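Protein Record: Sequence and Backbone Structure Tokens
======================================================

Structure line: whole-number tokens from a learned vocabulary of local backbone shapes, matched to residues.

Purpose: to set a sequence beside its fold so the mapping can be learned.

___
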Amino acid sequence: MNTTHDTTAMLKEAMTALPIDTSAAEGAFKSSAALNEKISAVALTASEKSVAISQQWTQQSLKSLSDVSKAKSEPTDYVQAMTDFTAELSKAATEHMTAFAENAKEAQTDTLELLMAASKNFGEHATSAAKAAGKDVASGAKTIATK
């Protein structure tokens, strides 16, 4: 006659023999949260700088436009004012686009540095966790084998 095995008891025994260390998962969560915080700080700083550049550009453009909109005594003065306005706009565009590019480059560099540091840290933790898990599994397997 066939006997029914108590799988619940077997699973409980196996789980007791193979303890699970949740500290690795907790550590991974904390590391991930810290990395996300740092990356968010880089993104927010870059956004703040971008807004400042845009605001400065807008203020310069409006000031230049107010100079163009002033009444002139001679028709040629209007042409000169438009020429000056266009030249100032062109110069401002070059300066501000360069500032945007520098801001993006700085954010990219900071992000890459954070990711490289996190990758190195992750590799070290993964190696030590794998070694610890290997030891735990080996001792748990021995315990199960002896029962």
Notes: Residues 38-117 form one domain.
